[in-house]
């Protein structure tokens, strides 16, 4: 039993799991690639989600309708199918794409649809009395959105947002299905080479993902209430 | 770009249909197992027995924070080491890929269902359960007659969300070679070079499956709010009157 663990946890294997073939062949891979895709997708989808979410929360039909269409169509399709679309559709029109880019685009659009829902819910959750008070105090509509609604919505939606970020971090593992060298693919290769210790290999990968995602959750929990947010960023 | 959807009346169409059947089967089996795991685990976490608490926590947190694909690979490749031999032999006779996919998806989504169930039970005031116990109802009886009927109304919408996620995640089973829809699409793309057409069709089919799940959820919600609510509303009204009396 310990033998198997020793065979899996060699320095060479750990290097491949963490950075892939970065030092041998100059190709980034493993956990580094997973984090790259995950963090870029999180950043991009937050931007998309914020814009689309605000559009969904508005009463104007011209803003609301396209946003609703986007959210509904992207939420009801498996991410894997979106990855295949992003990978196989552009070449049909003669556009060159890369595996990295197609996974990133698919993941960003998919997560963006979910985040839009969260943002919309956050905006709706701000009590109407706040808006009335702001209007009475003479704030312009833009000021009301920026200084009254969005800050409150932000703290209301943080727990849901944290959950969504973890899901998108987990979903980066789909990259291996179109042949990217991410953590899952490297682990699969190590498992295939050793052949006798799949339990140890896959438990190791699961453990790495677990540590990363728990870490992400704990970081986001620091922001979860106003006090700790202010302490961290505003030094109040 | 030249697409020709008429090819779907031939072999590709039958392949996609057979894939659809496998997808639906997989989703139903995984859903049944996941619901059982979810209800048991969620209830155990809600009760908070010291003896099982750490075990439940480890299970739920581990399954929620790791990717479903890796869990699928784990259950597929290390089944002969992890599962008891008779169980493995039994599953192997059906084609083990399907069994592994069911187990992995059930454990993964079971953890999410457990959180949903726990949140639903948390929405019921703890006093309800304690009062039922004090009035002499058995443990399971007070869960079944008092806690769950009140929790289930809060619980249906997130449950539906999770179930659509489960349906969507069945597409991952292609990673271990279960012949479901996405797998058949890859086959059609590889052997007949009709990728875009097949991809369009299975995208539409997935959307339809998800919408059906959402529709069933809405139906259930409506049924529950009509039947459970009517009865509970009078109960709540009674309780408020009684409460008022006591305060006075």
From TrEMBL, chain A:
The keyword Transport appears for this protein: yes
Primary subcellular site in the record, as a coarse category: membrane
InterPro entries: AA_ABC_transptr_permease_3TM, ArtM/GltK/GlnP/TcyL/YhdX-like, MetI-like, MetI-like_sf
Gene3D superfamilies documented for this protein: MetI-like
GO terms for MF: transmembrane transporter activity
Keywords: Cell membrane, Membrane, Transmembrane, Transmembrane helix, Transport
GO BP of this protein: amino acid transport
Entry GO CC: ATP-binding cassette (ABC) transporter complex
Record's bilayer topology term: Multi-pass membrane protein
Location of the ABC transmembrane type-1 domain: 31-218
Localization per Swiss-Prot or TrEMBL: Cell inner membrane; Cell membrane
Chain ranges passing through the membrane: 28-55, 67-88, 100-123, 144-167, 201-223
Family: Belongs to the binding-protein-dependent transport system permease family. HisMQ subfamily.
Designated name of the protein: ABC transmembrane type-1 domain-containing protein
Species in which this protein is naturally found: Oceanibaculum pacificum
TrEMBL record, chain B:
Spans traversing the lipid bilayer: 15-40, 72-92, 98-116, 191-216
Keyword Cell membrane attributed: yes
Localisation: Cell inner membrane; Cell membrane
Membrane topology: Multi-pass membrane protein
Gene Ontology BP, a term: amino acid transport
Pfam families: BPD_transp_1
UniProt keyword annotation of Amino-acid biosynthesis present: no
Coarse class of the protein's main subcellular location: membrane
One GO CC term on file: ATP-binding cassette (ABC) transporter complex
GO molecular function terms listed in the Swiss-Prot or TrEMBL record: transmembrane transporter activity
CDD domains: TM_PBP2
SUPFAM superfamilies from the UniProt entry: MetI-like (SSF161098)
Domain ABC transmembrane type-1: 20-217
Domain of life of the native organism: Bacteria
Keywords noted in UniProt: Amino-acid transport, Cell membrane, Membrane, Transmembrane, Transmembrane helix, Transport
InterPro entries: AA_ABC_transptr_permease_3TM, ArtM/GltK/GlnP/TcyL/YhdX-like, MetI-like, MetI-like_sf
Protein family: Belongs to the binding-protein-dependent transport system permease family. HisMQ subfamily.
Protein name, per record: ABC transmembrane type-1 domain-containing protein
UniProt organism field: Oceanibaculum pacificum
